[in-house]
Input
Amino acid sequence: MARLLYSVRVTGAEYVPPRGPVIMAPNHTGFLDAPLLMGTCPRPVHTLAKKELFRGPLGWLLHGVGQIPLDRDGPGRGMVRAGIGVLDAGRVLVVFPEGTRGAGDFAELRTGLAWFALRSGAPVVPVVFAGTGTRGRTLGAMPGLRSRVEVVFGRPVTLPTGGGRTRSALDAATEQLREALVAHREAVASRSEEKQ
Output
């Protein structure tokens, strides 16, 4: 559907491991990001999405396609079990590391991404969206019809095993992932500037 409405360009899909558990770590600037990732990832994805989306018909649809409700104020055991279950079954879990829409620059990450990566040993694939929306919370922030939008997958990052699950290990893993995600975003921005 996105390809009917927008000019979609996908690069780096070959970096997504074809089997086994994988964690996708996308930036998040617009409403289109999660649906676009669902439609362009070479494997089916299970996204941690804010629980407010799971009301009414949209909630039935999201549950039906395997998405996982997330209470951003206090992630519960059910969400954690569901996320780990996805990875233990060798599937793809999407964690928006910034926790919400924003500048999409990976400047500040929550620790959930690192926790899932340390717990599962799954590689983390950085994903950068470009053109999916400006910073904002209204539907007016959606890209215009036939606008160019990009999905750029990066090389997987695997955290060292045996690092422990202490707070210091979690903070160190979060910083390692933040550096890798920022580097991927900067590389994408640099390529875009060269083309202009």
In short: The radius of gyration is 16 Å. The first strand starts at residue 7 and ends at 11.
